[in-house]
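Researcher: Please translate sequence to structure tokens.
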Amino acid sequence: MTATSATDAIGQVNTLATHYAFTVWNGMSDFLIILVLLSLFFLFAWYVGRGPFVAVLLSFYSAYALYVIFPYKSYLPTAPAMTALLAQVGLYAGLALVFYIILRRVVVSDFLYIGVFGLIALSFLGAAFLLTLAYHVFPVADVYRFTPAIDLLFAPKAYFWWWFVAPAIGLFFLAR
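Model: Translation complete:
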């Protein structure tokens, strides 16, 4: 009788531990997405330069402006969710690349200074900008479910404008 109750107790502990481990892992995986994007932006700015980093942030705005009014969006596939997401993200990435190339020629890094703290802050704001676009512009919800903690930060429509304008405000105050 004690062997069965001990076995049941161990099974319940294992089930509980597995449940909480998966819950913690899922929550951390979404924050890991932010951390990876932040790291990519920071390393890009650190090794390539502050001028190209500013050009990347500004190209996001320019690409969004053309993406919203793109006249042939109805020709993009919509059937499988992953294909639709990749097509829309690919279109946005292509527009961002074109504007990055244009802006890279205009933004000069000789007269631009952003400190390390400013670089980390701008990297975070750039990552938040992309996550905001993922929530409100691209059909990411059909492919991937974010955790409620990330949903609280990025899902409300009222927050879209604030996350959208945050990199521009950060550039205004942190780039000299």
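Researcher: Any highlights?
Model: The mean pLDDT is 86.
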